[in-house]
Amino acid sequence: xxQIFIKLTSLAFMLLPVALFAQTQTWGTEVQxxxxxxxxxNATTFCQGDSATLTLTGTAPFxxxxxxxxxxxxxxxxxxxxxxxxxxxxLDATTGTTTYTVNIVAGTAGTFALTDISxxxxxxxxxxxxxxxxxxNPNPNCSxxxxxxxxxxxxxxxxxxxxxxxxxxxxxxxxxxxxxxxSVNEQSVNVKAGTSCGIxxxxxxxxxxxx
Length: 211
Hints:
- The chain is mostly beta strands.
- The chain contains no helices and 18 strands.
- It has strands at residues 38-41, 45-47, 51-57, 62-67, 69-70, 73-74, 77-79, 90-91, 98-105, 110-120, 126-129, 132-137, 144-145, 157-162, 169-176, 178-180, 188-193, 201-208.
- Strands 2, 4, 7, 10, 11 and 12 form a six-stranded mixed beta sheet that branches.
- Strand 10 (110-120) and strand 11 form a beta hairpin.
- The protein starts with 37 loop residues before the first strand and ends with a strand.
C-alpha cells in the first residue's frame, strides 16, 4: 500500500501600522461687528418754538420709529440722506462710533407720550429706546397797553404796560427816536419821544413765564 505524506506549512501574518496621511485646508473670513445705534434728547420739557437737540450715534442715515406723535413729527423719521439734515458727524477713535446732532423745533404745544421707540442705521443695526414723554409748554400771551393813538409830539412821555401779569421777567427795548425814563425790567415802562420830528421809535417787549 502506498502512503501519501502531506506537509503542512504554517503561514504567519504580521499586522503592521500604516501611516495615513490627511491634508487639512483652513478657510478664514472677517466678520465686522458694529455698535448698536442710539438716540437721546437733551431735555423733556420745552417752550413752544424752542429747539430740541437730538444726539444720534451710529452710521447715517438713521430711521427712527415710534408709537404716538411729537406735534407735526410722526413715525417714521429719517435723519440724514434725504431726510432731516444732520451736522457733520464726530468720530470717536476709541469706540469707532460716530455722533451726530440735529435740532428740531418744538412747534406744537402739548404733552406727547412716545412709546415703542426704535432706531436703525445704515449698517442695519437696530436698537430699542426707552419710552419718552415730551412736554411743550405754550408761549405766554403778550401785548402792550397804553400805546398812543396816532403820532406823538417831540418830548412826549408815554406810560406803557404789559398786559400779562405774574411773569418772572419783563424786558423792554426801545430803538430809534425815543428813550426809557424808567426801568426796562418792570411790567410798565415810561418812554419819552425824542426831539426830532418825523422819526419814529420802536418798542419791543419780551416776557418770560415760569413753567
